[in-house]
Amino acid sequence: MDWSFQAAEELIAALRAGVVTSVELTDEAITRIERDDEAINAICVPDFDRARAAAHRADQARARGEDRPLLGIPVTVKESYNIAGLPTTWGMPPHRNYMPYEDAVQVSRLKVAGAVLLGKTNVPLGLQDIQSFNEIHGTTTNPWDRSRTPGGSSGGSAAALASGFGALSIGSDIAGSLRTPAHFCGIYAHKPTLGLVANRGMVPPSEPALPVDLDLAVVGPMARTARDLTLLLDVMAGPDPLTFGVAHRLALPPARHERLRDFRVLVLDEHPLIPTGAAVLAGVNRVADALVDGGARVARHSPLLPDLTEAATLYTQLLISGSVARFPTESHELLRTRAAALSADDQTLDAVRLRAMVLSHHDWIEANNRREVHRHSWRRLFAEFDAVVCPITPTPAFPHDHSPNPLERRIDIDGVEYPYFDQLVWAGLATMPGLPATAIPAGRSPEGLPVGVQLIGPMFEDRTPLWLAELLEQKNGGFQAPK
């Protein structure tokens, strides 16, 4: 039997029943990677010898009567996570030989849960792109169309899952880096509530792995089924044992409803700053139709929705100012001069990005205060609705674009070009206030490319969008493997 595209939940049942061993699953996954990954280039740092040894230990543990959540399940890990004994580069050539001495907290949790780590998946330079290519490890392609990107920055993980290279993966998200690759590759991903999942050890190379709570950034699960997302989130979730974990214990509330017909859902398909392409619009409508057909209460408008233009502006200010602080430029004064030359009337996202590169602490505090107003608006909205359905990006996967200055790139939306990074506004809708968002498959474009949407839920009620994803999966199906 070919186990490569089976859900982790099904593999666990087969392992428990003695139908298959972890060694067999691991060998099959490695064989598939060695056969198919030359064209996809998803697994940039294989760790097959240690994977086989871990699989053997998992089988021995099961023979002794042990059972853990992921015991014997082959998984992959985004390159940006520290794994002792493997390089962590973030695609940065000066750090190609950096070797961390201890595992990231999430890698440790995977190992404690019994997972078998096959290796690391590819990322863009510094995790700063919507694609996944770098000088060290090359370009990851989309399994559905190799002329197109699998997305970024967790594109290697999404491509690996779509190709059958392991049952689960873990990634990270600050600008849709979990959700966009899921959308482009036809899989599932979950961006947790900000602060729900400890991120220590998901850190740029050579920096100390300290328990720092980064603004906007989260780490989270990727899978081929919605149920597997919940399985992996339960392994990952919880505070860092070095900080909040000293005193806090996790107790996520259950999903708000059990039946699809009890959900109240707001569906959004238009953004004031960028159009929604026809293929993505069709995907949103397919999900909306499934909700209506299942008896859910669906609305297309609400006065409770926070202003989308201000939300995108705040997100851009917080994202760019934080990124520049972590990856400082060498031309700060030049940027300051260029920002000062902008017209006060220029409120395009290009202008917002430039101003954010030299944002003062005073202006950051003001933006953060406005974010709190938006968070409160979302609380009021989620008193009336249980979830929001909306796009992740305006288009399916786009062709590879390696032009050196991403600020000069353009994204084609039904024949009209827009600034490349403007497509992040939908991802930022959940990221800016720190809300959970689950990416789910929503069919395919006329060209056969996957299309996904995101289900945004109330803060720290991650089980609500995850369960809604499961109900939609039961109704409409989910992942399909590329032919």
What does this structure look like?
This is Amidase. One of its GO terms (cellular component) is endomembrane system. InterPro entries: Amidase_CS (IPR020556), Amidase_dom (IPR023631), AS_sf (IPR036928), FAAH2 (IPR052739). Pfam families: Amidase (PF01425). Keywords: Hydrolase. With 483 residues, the chain is α/β, with parallel strands linked by helices. The protein folds into 2 domains: 239 residues, Amidase signature (AS) domain (Amidase signature (AS) enzymes, Alpha-Beta Complex); 158 residues, Amidase signature (AS) domain (Amidase signature (AS) enzymes, Alpha-Beta Complex). Helices cover 36% and strands 14% of the residues. The strands form 3 sheets. Strands 1-3-2-6-8-7-14-15-11-9-10 form an 11-stranded mixed β-sheet, sandwiched between helices. The protein has a two-stranded antiparallel sheet with strand order 4-5. A two-stranded antiparallel ribbon has the order 12-13. Helix 4 links the parallel strand 2 and strand 3. Helix 2 runs antiparallel to helix 3 and helix 9 packs parallel to helix 11. The longest helix has 24 residues. It is globular, with a radius of gyration of 21 Å. 51% of the residues are buried.
Short description:
By secondary structure, the protein is of the alpha/beta class. The chain is 36% helix and 14% strand.
Q: Helix share of residues? A: 25-40%
Number of domains: 2
Q: Looking across the biggest beta sheet, what order are the strands in? A: 1-3-2-6-8-7-14-15-11-9-10
CATH superfamily of the largest domain: Amidase signature (AS) domain
Low-confidence stretches: none
Could you spell the SSE succession in H and E letters?
HHEHEHEEEHEHEEHEHEHHHHEEEHEEH
Organism: Amycolatopsis antarctica
InterPro entries: Amidase_CS, Amidase_dom, AS_sf, FAAH2
GO cellular component, one term: endomembrane system
Domain Amidase: 24-464
